[in-house]
Every structure is written in structure tokens, then in C-alpha cells.
Amino acid sequence: MFKTYISDTIYQNIMRAEEQKAVASRSKFFKLMKQQQTRILTVDDTDYIRQHSDEVLKNPSALYVLDIPHSESLCIQKRYGVMCLSGEDPDISPLIDINDIHISNDRETLGRGWDSVLDSVERLPSNALLLTDRYLFAFRHPNAGDGIANIHDILDQLLPRQFDGGDYHVTVIFDDKSKHHSYTFEDIATHLNRLKRQLKRKYPIMMEVLGVTPDCSIYNKLHNRLIISNYFLVEAGHKLAAFNHNRGTARQMLIPLALFTESSLKGTSTPPLKAINQTIATLRNFSRSLPRLTDHSVYLYAVNGQRMERCMGIRNRLLI
Question: In whole angstroms, what is the distance from residue 78 CA to residue 49 CA?
Fold first, then answer.
């Protein structure tokens, strides 16, 4: 869940400065704090985070604004994929969407494919990804959209080069009943797990795969095709298997979105963050219900290529 953690000294300085301004000229950061949950950190809280910087992963989708030098905040951000800013200059512009929209067409070139589509969000900090598309593996022909190849290209763009927080979490959710007839669930889980070696990251990746069926309680809530991380989402109008290399496999809109827009901070529109929260809430509630589920045949589940008889909870840290 997104919230802001801010050192008390920085918070007081910002409040004093902003309250002297006309309402229309107040900063985006001030407006964000007024809209979203904000927790003020004591000096001891801030010192603790400095000494135990991996603590930020307990709130993996939060914004930290700390009374520390810029070099130190940038180091925390790079190591753990959690947005951490120095109070010297808390620039939240990366969280403000730039209205970047891409329209693909069947078999027509669209820039560099996923490499182009993800340009506006791939530099945001990241510690987990969640991909959901019921028909992700419905085809195996490249021109129709190969799910495995597209996930490879998506992950290659979005997985950070550095991550020091243990396993980076990737969760892929699809409709097991709609997969191509030549696939088994085990095939898909194995292929996805093999991607980890191809991606050549130096940190471990947890590859979690959930194949739902139409009888699963969340099936009808997973209509949208989404890529979700802790500070952005990408929505595909038709399918995430959107490219054969850099050529489109369908006519559709592909929309990468940061958490907020200019108008949402003014209170005149809905922030993209709400779409993330809705999907996360659906999956979190489902995950928490799994230990009480009596019929586990409504889904299939695998972790790191290994099929599990039961899932007792989705492991992705975005669901914290």
C-alpha cells in the first residue's frame, strides 16, 4: 500500500514553507501528502532506517523522504527498489504520469516493441512485478503473440540491474483453461523459470505462477491485462502478448502509468494508483482465503518451476 514516511524535521520545514503559499501554487509533494497516508518519523526512526536500510522492504510500495544526504537516499533506492528521497530536494516528479500512450497494430512495427512501451516507467524503483492476463498463453505462434517470449522481453526491461533485498518477486497469473492445447501448466511454469537464467540478473528471482479456472473466485475480476509494480502499472487493451519482436500482434492501446497525474493531485481525476490498489486488494483477499479453501482444484500453482499441490498464500511482496 502506498504511503509516505517522512522525517519530522523535513515535514515541519515543508509545512511551514507551503502554508505561506497561495493554494494554487503549493507543490505537488504537499498535495500528495494531503491526499495519501503520511507517517512522520522521529529522529530515532530515521536513524534506525539509516542503520537497517533493508527495513524499507517492510513497506515495499511506500515513499520515504528522509533527513539524509542525497547519495545515501539514492543508495537505499537502488539497493531495495523502494523510492527513497533526501529531504534536501524531495522531487516526486517520477511518480507523476507523463501521458505516454502507445497504439500497436497487427504486424506493424512499433518502435522497439516492449522496449519502447516501457521507457517511461522502467527507471522507477522496483522490487516486485505482477502480470495478469487470462489469455497470456492462448497462442504459441509468434505472429499471434507468444506469451513466454513477451514475458521475457517485459522482464528484461523492468527487472532492475541491482537488487539487494533477497528474492525479487515475479508473479504471473493466467487462465489455465484458455492456454494453448500444446501447453501443460507444468510446461508454462518450467519455461518461465528458465527465463531467470536468460535474464542474467545477479540476484535471485522468485517466479510464481498461478493458473486460475473459471470456477475460481477471482476469475471475473481479472479481466484487465496488467503489469503492476510498486510504483507503476501498464495496461494492455487486448493482450500482454503484444509483440513479435517489435511488431504488434494486435491493434490495441498500451498505456504505462505512474501512480499519479497532475489532475489527480488537484483532486479533479482518479489517480492510476487506484487501479493498482483494486487489483492488489482482489489478490490479497484471495491469498488470505486460501488456507480456508476447501476446493483447491480451481487453480494451479507453481514456484520456481515446481508445481505445488496447494497454495497457502501468494508470496509476492506487493500483497503485503
Answer: 15
